Amino acid sequence: MGKFYGLLGEKLGHSISPKIHDLVFLELKEQSTYQLFQVKRERLKEVVQGLKYLGCSGVNVTIPYKIDIMDHLDNISEEAKRIGAINTICFKGETATGHNTDYFGFGMLLNKFNINIRNKKIVILGTGGSSKAIIQYVLDNGASKITLVTRNLSNTLLNKDYETIDYDMLSKNPEGNVIINTTPVGMYPKLDFSPVKENVFSGFEAAVDLIYNPFETLFLKDARENGCTTTNGLYMLVGQAIASEELWNNISIEKQVVDIIYNKLKANLYE
Q1: Which domains are seen in the chain, by residue range?
Q2: Of residues 19, 29, 66, 120, which has the active-site annotation?
Q3: Which of 192, 167, 193, 191 is closest to 179 using CA atoms?
Q4: Alpha-carbon gap, residue 238 to 17, rounded angstroms
Q5: What is the pLDDT of residue 63?
Q6: Catalytic (active site) residue 66
Q7: Residue by residue, what is the 3-state secondary structure of 218-263?
Q8: Does the global pTM surpass 0.85?
Q9: Stretch 6-11: mean pLDDT, rounded?
Q10: Residue 251's pLDDT is what?
Q11: Beta strands 33-38 and 4-9: pairing type?
């Protein structure tokens, strides 16, 4: 009997994570399954305990639980502690350990699409769990300036590593080289929305949207029409999934597998 894994979140109806991991299992010739665990916030502790008892090998965690679930784990990896959010849990016997593979998936995406952040001014939209991995990656990889954009400045702690502004401030003074959307604004089915006004993109070189459905959000369309290099979040999603599989199974997976699965998914989802 194969191992079983899954995705833990609040609303998972449109998730393609099972498709990604099923493709990974095919590549690795592994007889395993990947399931969706849609749970309410107040049940997180019980769910973690239940997955331990059922012998689950590991789960991914998606919005809005990447921070909250940390309170219910036995261990947090060093990289996840620095980031302040997890997206992957490894179960070993009675122990649940949180990791963050979004960090590595984001790095793979930047490398794949030749988006340079070293010595660049980076603007990051959103302050949720997904943004934390992006902030840490940008900090670790030589950005000259980081600006975090939030809807509510009163809820944001001052941080010496980056400047925090609201969306009105960004619209009035858009400044940067790479802009990254970590919010769900513009995700299917609400296709006619963007987190920023079109004028924001005029000075930017590149735009990244972590959303992968649709292929091109209004955010990316506006960016492209203003001369930016653009990419959505599908490659990052595949990259973090591969990194999760490596943790769950204590193996190293060849990077070409990311490309193989990405190309299959892209053809299946968008063409």
Answers
A1: 4-100+235-270 (3.40.50.10860), 104-232 (3.40.50.720)
A2: 66
A3: 167
A4: 8
A5: 85
A6: yes
A7: HHHHHHHHCCCEEECCHHHHHHHHHHHHHHHHCCCCCCHHHHHHHH
A8: yes
A9: 95
A10: 94
A11: parallel
